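User: I'm writing a short methods note and want a consistent example. For DUF3617 family protein, I'll paste the sequence; you return only the structure tokens, no commentary, since I'll be parsing the reply automatically.
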Amino acid sequence: MRTLPLSAVLLGAAALAAPALAAPVVTPGEWTSTMTMDSMTMPGLPPGALDAMKGKPITTSYCLTPEEAEADPKKILAADKSCKVDRFNMAGGKIDSAMTCQTPQGPATITMSGTYTADSYAMNSTMKAGPMTMASRVSARRLGPCK
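Assistant:
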């Protein structure tokens, strides 16, 4: 059985986290986001590869435009036609969502939960696709206006 490439898993988790929080209550501007993989199982992964990645933060910066900040986060998640949003709640500074995506390896389930303010967020996510599982966390904060 094939598994998702590690780069696709990490990019997918990071990409889902940022747009999921691009709600009207989030302030446009320059943001920095740090994603840390807490655990992962992937059959066939070379020995030591997981240890080389686990707990190593990946930090990115991005400019959130006013249009992106006003976008409906549920619609952003639902834009990928291979995915179905199973649950989405974002209110009162809390976010809780679950979605199922169809991949060449079969269905992948992704859950996210966390907190947000206008200038920061913190979220935990889990992903399961066949025998592969991953748990990660992301935190982000607004730095100021876009450069």
